[in-house]
Amino acid sequence: METPTVGENVVIGENVTFGKNVQIGHNVVIYDGVQIGSYCIIQDNAVIGKQPTRAKNSILPDVKKLPPTIIGSGCTIGTSAIIYANAVLADDVFVADSATIRERVTIGEKTIVGRGVAVENDCQIGVKCKLETNCYITAYSELGDFVFVAPGVVTTNDNYMARSKERYDKFKGITIKNGGRIGANSTVLPGRTIEEDGAVGAGSVVTKDVGKEELVIGTPAKVIRNVPENQLLRNQ
Predict the structure, then answer these.
(1) Which 3-state string (H, E, C) describes 98-109?
(2) What is the DSSP-derived secondary structure letter of residue 2?
(3) 80 CB neighbour count, 10 Å cutoff
(4) Residue ranges of the alpha helices (H) in the chain?
(5) CB distance 46 to 67 below 8 Å
């Protein structure tokens, strides 16, 4: 194991491993067993490997201690970012300041998680995605490769709005397939799917699935035309 470059007031737990040339800023906390690859930058006040704490009135099942966080090589973890236990980041992932990545989340190579983004528990994020400032990826969602989520996008997973026991086994996040895109300040309702290269215009409310290469706009979002050929993923 290599010895990282460490700032002041850093707390490193037991059995943490580092690759080559890791740089750690001030006031960073790294919990037990975390694995960090080579050439990573961990900026001030970041927290890595945090175990989740269950609220007393949470309907989610209580879980025992989760496995450690794994961070690939070439990653940057921004100031005040929090990455929970059992999250796995592939190589060259960029996590910006104040972002939160919850437990049991996987993030593919070269994906950008923007400032203030929240990726909730049990999500899968593909390679070379861009999750822009302050977007919210709800729990149990799946994003493919080359997905773009603009600033202020909100995704949801509870059609019952926290009422009725009927909802307990019906939580369902969203699915965005390869090349799917969502414009700024849009809202996507629970369980909706955006197919390959589907696009949602800014400020829309997505109440139905978006078809392959369709462009939808409005409240509720409706198809207005197909995505232009020169914007399709295969033509980039």
Answers:
(1) CCEECCCCEECC
(2) P
(3) 18
(4) none
(5) no
The CATH number for 27's domain is 2.160.10.10
Could you give the 3-state DSSP secondary structure of residue 130?
strand
Model pLDDT for residues 176-210, shown as the tens digit of each residue: 999 999 999 999 999 999 999 999 999 999 999 99
Q: What is the pLDDT of residues 85-131, one digit of tens each?
A: 999 999 999 999 999 999 999 999 999 999 999 999 999 999 999 99
* Phi, psi angles (nearest 5°) of residue 233: -55, -40
CB 24 within 8 A of CB 47: no
From residue 134, how far is each of 45, 98, 152 by CA, in Å? 19, 10, 5
In a 3-state reduction of DSSP, which class is residue 132?
A: coil
Is the Cα torsion angle 129, 134, 135, 140 positive or negative in sign?
Answer: positive
Neighbouring CB atoms inside 10 A of 192's CB total 20
* Structural domain that includes position 78: 1-52+65-127
Shared-domain flag, residues 31 and 148: no
Cα angle for residues 86, 22, 13 (degrees, 5° grid): 50
Q: Are strands 94-95 and 76-77 parallel, antiparallel or unpaired?
A: parallel
In this structure, are 170 and 200 located in the same domain? yes
d(CA 3, CA 21): 8
* Angle CA 210–213–214, to nearest 5: 50
Predicted structure pTM score: 0.93
